[in-house]
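S1.2 Input.
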Amino acid sequence: MNSRTKGHGFERTMAVRLRKIFPDVSTSRFRGALWWDIAGVDLTGTDPYNFQCKAKETSPSYHSILASMPKGQNINVILHKRNNKGIVAVIDFEDFLKMIT
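S1.3 Output.
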C-alpha cells in the first residue's frame, strides 16, 4: 500500500470513529471541499475543531502543520498514527489551555 492510499484510509477511519461525536463528519475530499483540503483540514463537520490526519512512521513537523492550518475560532488538531503504536492527538498548548479551562 502506498503512502497516499494509507493516508486516505486513515482519514476515512478517523471520520468513522469520530462520527459518534460529530454526526456530520466527512473527509474534505469526499465533500469536495477543496479549500479545506488545501488549508490542511482533512475532516469537515467537526466544529469546534479542525483535524489534520497523518499516517506515517516518522514524526511530522507538528509545529509547521499547526502553523499552516486555518486561524480562527476552531482548535487545530493533528491526529498521527504509526503502525502498531496507536494514534496521538497533537494541539497547540494555548488551545489545550482553552479546552481545560
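S1.4 Remarks. Strands lie at 26-27, 43-44, 49-55, 75-82, 86-91.
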